Amino acid sequence: QVAESGGGLVQPGGSLRLSCVASGDTLNGYGIGWFRQAPGKEREGVSCIASNDDRTYYSQSVKGRFTISRDLSKNTAYLQIDNLQTEDTAVYFCAVDFFGCTGALGLGTLRTADFGYWGQGTQVTVSS
User: Fold this and answer.
1) How far is the C-alpha of 44 from the C-alpha of 112, rounded, in Å?
2) Which of 4, 82, 104, 107 is 20 to 30 A removed from 61 (C-alpha atoms)?
3) Tens-of-pLDDT digits for all 128 residues of the chain?
4) What is d(CA 117, CA 115) in angstroms, rounded to the nearest whole number?
């Protein structure tokens, strides 16, 4: 089970750090993904980190502004979001699975179907 936190209302150009805490199991050995869903749009994969090394994936729309990381001692993954833009407004979801990032690293597309365990999401709103 995973749970996200850290969302909020931010002005354009601001930053947020989202957290994804695992309970009942360790994040060690799991690929971790971050997705977002804006109103009226499909869920979009934005970043992931591989289960067994530090390889990462970022979608083109967030590359250079988003940074994924994890701290296994805290059983927590993070998504640092810098230079927030209005189009970043969405509910952000954390997801985990054993090989969840493998497809993205190989095919260049982060798919919801590659992850079996999801959090409830945290709202990020970017507005002046």
Assistant:
1) 8
2) 4
3) 899 999 999 999 999 999 999 987 788 889 999 999 999 999 999 999 998 888 999 999 999 999 999 999 999 999 999 999 999 999 999 999 988 898 899 888 999 999 999 999 999 999 99
4) 6
CB 100 within 8 Å of CB 48: yes
* Rounded distance between C-alpha atoms, residue 92 and residue 18, angstroms: 8
Helix, strand, coil shares of the chain as percentages rounded to 5? Answer: 10, 45, 45
Q: How many Å is the maximal CA-CA distance in the chain?
A: 40
Cα torsion 116, 94, 64, 7 to 10°: value is: 160
Torsion angle, alpha carbons of 60, 15, 31, 4, to 10: -130
Burial of 20 (0-12, 13-18, 19+ CB in 10 A): buried
Q: Helical H runs in the chain?
A: 102-107
DSSP 8-state symbol, 101: T
